[in-house]
Amino acid sequence: MAFCRSSQRVSLAIVVLLALCARFSSASDKFPSCPTANCGGRKISIAIDSSGSMVDTDPQNLRINASRSLIESLVSSSSADANNKADLVSVIDFDDIAKVIYPLGDPSGASSVLSEIDSSGGTYIADGVNKSIIQIQSRNQDQTSGKSGIIVLTDGEDSSLALLLKQVANAKALGIRVNFAFLNPFGSITAPGAPDLLKSIIGNGGIYSTINSPTAQKNFVDLVLAHGLTDQDNPNPNGTTALLPGLTVPRLISKDIGTVKFSYNALQDENLNVTVQGINGQILNCKLDNGQAQQILSTGGLYSQAILTYNASQMTNLKLEVSTNSITEGLFSVTVKSNKLNATRSTVISAASTTLPASTAYLMTIMSLFSSLMFGIMTLL
To answer: How far apart are CA 113 and CA 68, in angstroms?
Structure first.
């Protein structure tokens, strides 16, 4: 008799579980299936500088390695499924002019053309961005806005800054995010027209960062993927920005913009120097917080710095906040130097969105209920 009652309870538990699963299935129509990560179905163009100056600014061909890593991160047609639609990618080679060396298509074949990139000729970045826009618009124009991105790998010395700024503005108008990697062995973000270009890239929702070593090249790819190749990947690019060692990341700031936030996952026994450098002369208030103690410093004057240090005795999530009382919009940059520059790190996840989307929260609820039900069933048996 007791066994019969237990069987009835088990049957009831299974019915409830099936009902919850059915409810989640119907809820999936209301919420996106992968709202916080790479959902695929994107159109990406990689524009690679092949000008003669790259012989000096990128002697290790870091831009080629970064391009290969970016391509490998995309969803090919063979790996696509119901939750990850196939991406499309094009590869643009630019020097005096830009040329399409891989038309918009399946990522699986794109890496093979990277060997064609050389280092000769002038630098016409604007044409590289323009050809990228044309490629992205060549297919599924109604699926461009919010689902498209351009990654430019260059030493930043454009032959026409005005045209480059125009093309970045065109990309923004079409809903195409633009990210820039600035190849510079000295690690500086300074380049002809840098302030205007930085403002344009950041205003587009993109990342502009330096690459000056193989580790920085890898970290740039991780940073761009965490920040989002497209608006679909991260709808809030002005939220908290992840930092990685060896990279210099600029941001816009003013009193109206408010506090600019960054996060850094420090490893055990990692010694850090976090340099906040003003570019437009504003006084910047900088706060580094490990959750228990804060370090506060300020900058003052043109290109002045605040260097915050931290020695991590254990793995720690650090928060950096930068603010100003200046009503004038300006630029600043953050650089992280570490004694564990080459250490293996877990995949960086942008902290831009800290609220779980409804579908994810709902699934977690189902999983919790499932665990409780299974525990109850095992108890009854």
So the answer is: 10
Contact 274, 309 (CB under 8 A): yes
Over residues 235-288, the pLDDT tens digits come to: 888 889 999 998 889 999 999 999 999 999 999 999 999 999 988 888 999 999
Q: State the Cα–Cα distance between residues 366 and 372, nearest whole angstrom.
A: 10
| Continuous H helices in the chain | 2-27, 54-57, 62-73, 125-137, 161-173, 194-203, 214-227, 358-380
Kindly list the distances between the CA atom of residue 60 and the CA atoms of 137, 163, 212, 244, in Å, as whole numbers in the listed order: 33, 29, 9, 21
Query: d(Cα 45, Cα 71) in Å, to the nearest integer?
Result: 10
191 C-beta neighbours (distance < 10 Å), count: 20
Secondary structure (3-state) at 145: coil
Both tokens of 226, joined, read 């965490």
3-state secondary structure (DSSP) of residue 61:
coil
Length of the chain: 381
pTM above 0.90, yes or no: no
The DSSP 8-state label assigned to residue 40 in this structure reads: B
Q: How far is CA 338 from CA 46, 267, 304, in A?
A: 29, 10, 21
Residues 150 and 133: their CA atoms lie apart, in Å, by 8
